[in-house]
Amino acid sequence: MILKKRNFFYEGDNMYKIAIVDDEKSAIETLETHLKKFQEENPSLELNVRTFLSPDEFFEHENENFDLLFLDVEMPEMSGFVVAERLREKYSEIAIIFITNMAQYAIKGYSVEALDYVLKPVGYYAFSMKMKKAITYMERHSSKEIPIKLGESEFINVSVRDILYVEVLLHYIVYHTKEREFKVRGSMNEAEKTLKPYAFARIGKSFLVNMRSVKGVNGMDITLKNGEVLKLSRSKKEEFLTQFFAFMGNLNG
C-alpha cells in the first residue's frame, strides 16, 4: 500500500517506508486505516506501507530499509522483543513502536531502544500523536552526507549518522565513523559549523560528539554505543548536558 499526496507538514524528502508486523489481521487493518487518515491530514508525506502476519515473513524482507516498524509484542512464534533485538543487531536507526495489550511492556521496550508503544485497541488520536513523534525521529535520523576532502582533488561523501565523533589532532581533524577513520587537514571550528545542525555537540576542546551515538553519561565519562568512552570537560559539561537532554526530549517527549 502506497499512500501519496503533497502539500504541508515536514519539508524535505518525506517518503517513509513503514512495516507492520502483527499476527492479527484486524490489528493490521486498523493501523492501515489510521495511516491512510494520517496521510490525508498530512498530504506532504509519502508513506510506503508493507504488512506482515509473522516475524519470519518480515525477516524475509528486512533488508528493504524500513524507516518505521509497528511491532506486535505478543506473537506465537516469536515475541516482538526478540524480533526487535535481532533487528537492532544490524539496523540501529529504524524507529520501533510496539503494539501491546499491556502498558507495562513499555518499560521493557527501552532495552531495544523502542521509540514508543501504542495500546490495543489502537485509537486514532493516540496513533496520530505517535506518528508525529516518529516523523520527528525519522527526520533527525535521515541519511545526510557531508563531503570530506582526502586529498588535493579527492573527496568522499560520508553519512552524518555514521560519524561517531570528531577529534582534533594538531592541524588535523579525525572523523571516527562506524567503519573507519578519516584524517584530514582542518579545524574543529569548521567541523563544528558543518555538523552542529545534525545533533553534534562539543564535549571539550578536542572532541565533537554525535549525540545519537551516545549511550550514556556517568560523571565526566560519555559512553558511546560502540563501547568507547570519551571524557567530558568541566567547562563544557553544563552546556553539553543541556543540549543532550533537549535532544533526547525531542525524541522521547
Which sequence of SSEs, written as H and E, runs from N to C? EEHEHEHEHEHEEEEEHEEEEEH
- Given as residue ranges, the uncertain stretches (5+ residues, pLDDT < 50) are 2-13
| Portion of residues within helices | 25-40%
Mean pLDDT: 84
Spatially, the strands of the biggest sheet line up as 1-3-2-4-5-6
Radius of gyration: 20 Å
Number of helical regions? 7
Give the class from helix and strand content and strand pairing.
Answer: alpha/beta
Largest sheet: 6 strands, mixed
Q: Characterize the overall form.
A: elongated
N- to C-terminal distance: 29 Å
User: Care to count the β-strands?
Assistant: 16
Strand content: 25-35%
In a few lines, what is going on in this structure?
This protein is 32% helix and 31% strand. With 253 residues, the protein is of the alpha/beta class. The longest helix is centred in the last third of the chain and has 19 residues.
Protein described:
By secondary structure, the protein is of the alpha/beta class. The protein has seven helices and 16 strands. The chain has helices at 25-41, 55-59, 80-88, 105-109, 124-140, 188-195, 234-252, and strands at residues 2-4, 15-21, 46-52, 68-72, 95-100, 116-119, 145-149, 155-159, 163-169, 172-177, 181-185, 200-202, 207-210, 214-218, 221-224, 229-231. Strands 1-3-2-4-5-6 form a six-stranded mixed sheet, sandwiched between helices. Strands 11-10-9-13-12 form a five-stranded antiparallel sheet, with helices on both faces. Helix 1 packs across helix 5 (124-140). The longest helix has 19 residues, at 234-252.
